[in-house]
Amino acid sequence: MTSVDTARVTPDRPRVQDAEGPGHTHCPYCALQCAMSVTPTAGRAAEVTPEWFPTNRGGLCRKGWTAGELLDHPDRLTTPLIRRDGRLEPCDWDTALDRVVDGIRRAQAAGGPDGVAVFGGGGLTNEKAYQLGKFTRLALGSRLIDYNGRWCMSSAAAAANRSFGLDRGLPFPVTDLSGARAVLLIGANPADTMPPFLQHLDTAAAAGGLIVADPRLSATARHALDGGGVHLRLRPGTDAALALGLLHLVVVTGAADTRYLAARTTGFEDAWAHAAAWLPERTERVTGVSVALLERAVRLLADARDAGAGSYILTARGAEQHADGTSVVGAVIALALALGLPGRPGTGYGTLTGQGNGQGGREHGQKADQLPGYRMITDPDARAHVAAVWGVDPEQIPGPGVSAFELLDSLGQPGGPTAMLLHASNPVVSAPDADRVAERLRALDTLVVADFVLSETAALADVVLPVSQWAEEEGTLTNLEGRVLRRRRSITPPDGARDELWIWHELARRLDRGPENFPTDPRVVFDELARASAGGKADYSAIDWDRLDAGEVLHWPCGSDSPDGTPRLFLDGFATADGRARFVVDAPRTPAEPTDAAFPLLATTGRLLAHYQSGAQTRRVGELAAAEPRMWVQVHPVVARAVGLADGDAARVVSRRGAVEAEVRCDEDMRSDTLFLPFHFAGSGRANLLTLPELDPHSRMPEFKVCAVRLEAA
Ligand code: SF4
């Protein structure tokens, strides 16, 4: 079991005031964006030195500490690859790009502009996310772009937009949490996903006010219990019922903030029409969480609020990655509103963003329905503004595309795209129903993958383009609290690797689509991005690199109305037409795939301390691979024994879509109806061979977090 203490490596190094000066950069992985410096060393992996920054306060997790190993890894791609006679072979850049252009032209000849699709990633810098959206819509003329952040933040984003009129993961600085006496985490396991973040929960944990809702006793839930806090061990897929049950208790125990409700919200009566039915006993029956724990959670949140001691509610992927994820988050927001938490100093609601640039990645136009500045692509005013920045007629900007899974599922189908450019993503491992997606990728005439290692998806490509990595590039990212950060080049990329901005410029030149519109200097791209965002929800127009390099703390929106940035949102009103937050609550539904005699267990997936996302990077780092070398399944020993399995045995987990091979890890603390599988492993260990591509109607988020399975001996 993960140890929280070993995860929180705090360096005994001198502290600097703020790691936003020259020479400092940020971790390549998660949205906490811990600060570090990277130093080349002769004959060894580049040395990573943690730096002080408000989010990490000098701490790094083991992923960050070991990130330097990737920079000169033996698996590093330093020459383009092209498929000949079924095999990927090295070639020069001209040959590779000519092949890409041939594929694009063939696809466009067969299917028009939408014959070519583009897939991006939440790890791309702001400049690349922006440029990729622009390249798709102007150079390719295609509406078909989406990205892997669709599977990360989209439900939280949809719910926040519905209730607050704006989506920023944390609408307050991370450090605001540090003094809070009560924090409810729903579906979040930062002890494994972003360990230095736990520092900000120390006050709550020490006060017994850390409340963790999770189907399993995660490292974070254990941390809460160690401090006298609460673990709400809910049945997978009952998150909305849990939130409405808690909302019910808030109201009937008199913990609702009626003055706040009257002054700052609309729609409480509609929400109560749903929550009234979620009596504590019914909530206990459906979720498996006892009435006593439900009552205790509400009391902790309300007491901390009333004492002015800080009370917060945070969600993450456990709550959001469901086919009703938007409704789940809507119910959690309703709970937070009933308590009067959002938009006030010292209290709040937010969501923990996952990928390194998960926040910026969804603001600048690589999402199917969006233009830069978090504008909707269907909004005529937004189209006119962005078209003016791009120097084109608004009619030239295609309309909305389709969501990530729908896009991948259409590849090579009749009428679907026959070419795809894929950047910063590894859907063969990370997509739901992963083998179905791999089959669609294989059906393409031309699959182009830009990556720095031969990921499982790159291995299927017709052309692989080797790109530079985080410590080799300049750019900006936006962290989980909406703060814009500088990524700085500390290392020279290897000969042969190229920057994506250069690749898109070169493709535009070869396609004769105005290469001058696709500059290669990230600073120039940022300036254009900032202009394109002006007046949008995510307004960056008053930010420039000089301000960032001077160490200014700039959270968006940062435009003409807010030139100093906005660390705390909603203090004077929400971003809705009437300035009030909206209760948006739907009736909870059961998981999209119920259990039955053939598939009697629920599988839920999640992350490990040692790995990041699809594992394409972290599975290649020696220390991390040694810590977690292979796929496993966590199961209650009684469930394992029932099918003749014991700890360490080889097992198969089977769903209606596929089977996963995994080592059995028995755990007395597991629910007896639930299996847990990490999703970082490749081949027959891919958890997403099992998962269900049932999509949320609002966000198009797949049902990653629950599907029906059976366990059997391998
Ligand atoms: Fe920090 Fe996240 Fe990197 Fe770990 S993975 S060092 S928590 S940014």
Layout of helices and strands, plus pairs?
Blueprint: H1 4-7, E1 25-26, E2 35-39, E3 47-50, H2 62-65, E4 81-84, E5 87-90, H3 93-111, E6 116-120, H4 126-139, E7 145-147, H5 154-164, E8 182-186, H6 190-193, H7 202-206, E9 210-213, H8 219-226, E10 230-232, H9 239-252, H10 258-264, E11 265-266, H11 268-275, H12 280-287, H13 291-306, E12 311-315, H14 317-320, H15 325-338, E13 347-351, E14 370-371, E15 375-376, H16 380-390, H17 404-409, E16 419-423, H18 427-430, H19 434-442, E17 446-451, E18 463-466, E19 475-478, E20 484-487, H20 500-510, H21 522-533, H22 545-549, E21 581-582, E22 601-606, H23 622-627, E23 632-635, H24 637-642, E24 650-654, E25 659-666, E26 674-678, E27 692-695, E28 702-703, E29 707-713
Parallel strand pairs: 6-7, 6-16, 8-9, 8-12, 9-10, 11-21, 12-13, 16-17, 17-18, 22-26, 23-25
Antiparallel strand pairs: 1-2, 2-3, 4-5, 4-18, 14-15, 19-20, 22-29, 24-25, 24-29, 27-28
The protein binds iron/sulfur cluster.
Residues 27, 29-30, 32-34, 56, 60-61, 63-64, 194-196 line the site of iron/sulfur cluster.
